Amino acid sequence: MAPKQNSQTILSSFFSPSPTKSSKKRERPASPIDLTSDADDNDLQVLATEEPPIKKIKVVRSSQSQPGPSTRQKTKKSGNATPYTQSTLVSQPASSHTQEAEKAKRHEAFKKKLLADDSLFKPPRPSESDTSHTQLAEEETESIRMRIEDKGKSIDEDSRTDPDSAFEELMSAFSHSGSAVGKRRAKQKGSAGKKLPPKIGPSGEAYTPLELQVRYNLEDNQGTLLMIEVGYKYKFFGDDAKDTHIHIYRLLARGYKVGVVNQVETAALKKVSDNRNAPFDRKLTCLYTAATYVDDMMAEDDSEFYSPPPFMCLIEEPKKNSPGDVDISIIIICPSTGDVVWDDFEDSLMRIELETRLVHARPTELLLPERGVSEATTKMLQYFTGDTTTDHRIRVEHIKEVLPYTDAFSAVSKFYTDKKHAAVASESFKSGKLMAEVTAFPQRVVIALAQVIKYLSNFGIADALLETKFFSEFTTRTHMLLAANTLINLEIYKNTTDGTTKGSLLEVLDKTQTKFGARLLKSWIGRPLVDRNALQERVDAVREIRDSDSEKLEMLRRTLKGLPDLARGLCRIQYGQCTPKELATILLAFRKIGDAFEGFETPKDVGFESHVLNDVIYSLPKLRIPIKGLIDSIRIEQAVEGKKELMWTEPDNFPGLVDAAVLLQTAEVELAEELKKCAFGFNCVYHHFSGQVISTMRFVHFAESQKAYKEFLLDISNNCYGMLRDTVNKLAVADCLSSLGRVALDSNYVKPMFTEDDSLEIVEGRHPMIESVLHTPFVPNSVTMGYGRPRSKVITGPNMGGKSSFVRMVALVVLMAQIGSHVPAKSVRMGLHDSILTRMGASDDLAKGRSTFMVEMSETSDILHTASSRSLVILDELGRGTSTFDGVSHLNGFPRKHSLNEI
Fold it and tell me: What are phi and psi of 366, to 5 degrees?
């Protein structure tokens, strides 16, 4: 039985057979010819001599007119050929011969094209360094081509072979050969030992070029958490990826130094460069720490620090004749607000003075010498950096080599006299006041300042040292410095339970409406006034705000409400980091301030009794003209959307921006003309998708618009910064006075009376923090010292009788009075105190190597060395834990150290 015909189209169906008179179908051979067999000439001759059946003869004309097996067979047996055979070969119509010739020609052309395009049979392109792979591929390809030609001849010579089987055999040969080439290449590559061995990663696989680049960046920036730009994303690698959080500020708050690695070459430049096959070049472009990160203007101040985190540099020298005692100089900087504070002081072995300044400043970053810091100072710093109740960590950076004084002075002088800084310096710098004050600094302060300049230059914010009118000294003759244990014992900034501001004196008094006002109020609370005139002016201003119903005061409150953090915004303008949206917010806020009041000829025309309030309101209308000029220079709507190239009302002021716009328009016109040529005969138009220009086209203007924007920020810094900063400072004062007046009105506080003597009289005083949380009235207490009465009191009573609350109330009333606030009492008369010293509670300090009794005796000793005739001293449970005899001995010995008439 004949096999069934295959329904799939086969190669022979493209070539029509010779017409025959018989309609009987040709049967397939039982055993198809193997196209992959290597038959020699003898086998072909035997195949040619065998006479096939007459009805299965098929004539195929080759383009080369080479006689095939059928032709040779007809020539050899031409004498006894049958008429049927002759009619089959001769009586072919002319049209059939022409069609067969054309089909044969197409067949040969297809075969030649298949053999010419050998990309299907070649292995993948090898690397330039491995030339042997290419030679191997060429040899293998030539072998394949020869085999294809042999198989093609076999197909022409014997049409009885199944074309589908031949095609499958052919593809099998191709795939087999390709795998062989890959195996040989892999074998040869492994045997070549000329290349350096690849670096193997932890997974056992070799590093890729990108991974090697990342590894080198990590090695060069150890201790820095790197964000690396890869394509359009930033990625973290290695241990950095494990520690990464979505919010950068949380990383900074935990003490990390975060670096940003950007691609420093574009794809277009990469394509035409010599290293186009290498990874993109990436370098460290931005570096941040908690103290040096200048956050955006609307960022919230941290509740623990109540202000942007400061940065402190410390330089220490041992005293020659006093073992354990040292001289310390510090520089404290808040880059976000531009505040700079310095101090130079002596400290004892217990480092009480250093602890006081650390508690006041609460830095988030310390810059210390790697060598030369005493053991006592190191213990104090370690205790302070580890004492935190939140996730915040204090970062410590070390100075490898401290500059000597001569080199430090040269570096500082060069920094302040450099011409490139003259454009961004403050008014005091331009007038020479700042440089004169820097020259008068102690030597250690100059050394610390030089180290700070060098360190902050790495972050691009060294100009923070130029933007202040003058540096402020930490300790002055006009302020009282509260010791660290006083701040803690009286719960001035935070409570002793969970370390937050809840239940602290700061929370009770802070009713400010602005962030810069809240920061100033915190400074007031920690540094009470000892200057009588300044204190009296502040107290009078609070009284007038509490009692007056003036429309000007109401307008001042409405003006303060909703203001952004202008101090932080001005610093961002100074650093060139302000965004167009932030700039629009700042300018609109200053316009609101300038339009709040009409102009006044003199401060007295404002109409208040307080000179402080008159000065504040008198200065506000002066902003109107300069702010109007700045706002008229930009389009607020475009600035809010961040479109730097479209925000200018007068773009002619920036020639580069105009030239870029002209070039862009010219390019669009040329592209439109080119489109007409290319679109001839096609229905093509040039338009913007969705009515918008794609983001990449906006980059044409980016460079020039960025340059124009930087010039505008620089112009504000040069011409308006001093005036704007003075306005912010005065508004902060007004906000603090308004807050104290509101607290006095809401809590029924009274104005204190100050006397020339050193007496103290409190009538029905109340504890401000306890009163604010109690639902029942606080039981008032009265106390009088001086005025012919003893100047000391001993408070006794049962446990939980209120002894500690009473002595704390006395200290808090004195402190509140000397910051200018009204006080919680029926009446208060007091002289000015130069210090408030406390020794309260009982706790050890094992981190600093001190037991409970040692802590008590150390604090008491410090009080004895510090107290004066105008000091308020609070001692609570002195000698706790000892016997009754020992406690009485301590109480008797303390006043004998200093006469009762002196304390």
Answer: -120, 135
Q: How far is CA 231 from the centre of its chain?
A: 18
- Give the pair of three-digit tokens for residue 649: 């009302």
Give the lowest-confidence range in 346-350, 386-390, 397-401, 582-586. 386-390
Mean pLDDT lowest for which of 41-45, 518-522, 687-691, 717-721?
A: 41-45
Q: Is the separation of the CB atoms in 259 and 221 below 8 Å? A: yes
One-letter amino acid identity for 384?
F
Burial class (CB in 10 A: 0-12, 13-18, 19+), 735: buried
Pairwise CA distance, residues 191 & 169, whole Å? 33
HSE-up of residue 371 (Cα within 13 Å, Cβ side)? 4
What pLDDT, in 10s, does the model give residues 15-57?
444 444 444 444 444 444 444 444 444 444 444 444 555 444 4
For each of the domains in the chain, give its residue range(s) and CATH number, in order of start: 14-191 (no CATH), 209-288 (3.40.1170.10), 311-475 (3.30.420.110), 510-651+709-744 (1.10.1420.10), 748-897 (3.40.50.300)
Instruction: Give CB contacts under 8 A, 24+ apart, made by 13-19.
Output: 14/103, 14/107, 15/60, 15/100, 15/103, 15/104, 15/107, 16/99, 16/100, 16/103, 17/58, 18/57, 18/58, 18/59, 18/88, 18/92, 18/96, 19/92, 19/96
Ramachandran area for residue 499 (φ above 0: left; ψ -120 to 50: alpha; else beta): left
Q: How far apart are CA 600 and CA 582, in angstroms?
A: 30
Tokens representing 90? 């001769």
Residue with tokens 């680049």: 213
CA distance 83 to 65: 25
Q: Tokens representing 68?
A: 């095939």
Separation between Cα atoms, residue 351 and residue 325, nearest integer Å: 8
pLDDT digits (tens, 9 = 90+) for 654-667: 777 777 777 777 87
Of residues 843 and 763, the one with the higher pLDDT is 763
- Look at residue 223 and tell me whether its pLDDT is greater than 60: yes
Q: How confident is the model at residue 298 (pLDDT cuts 50, 70, 90)?
A: low
What pLDDT score was predicted for residue 671?
A: 76
pLDDT at 396 over 80: yes
Instruction: Return the H-helix or E-strand segment holding 765.
Output: strand 760-765
Q: Which residues contact 477 (CB under 8 A, 6 or more apart)?
A: 530, 531
> Is the pTM above the cut of 0.85?
no
Strand partners, 873: 837
Give Cβ neighbours of residue 325 (< 8 Å, ≥ 6 apart).
Answer: 318, 319, 346, 347, 348, 349
SS3 750: strand
Which residues are paired to 399 by β-bridges? 369
User: How far is CA 639 from each of CA 11, 51, 583, 587, rounded to the nearest angstrom?
Assistant: 71, 95, 8, 11
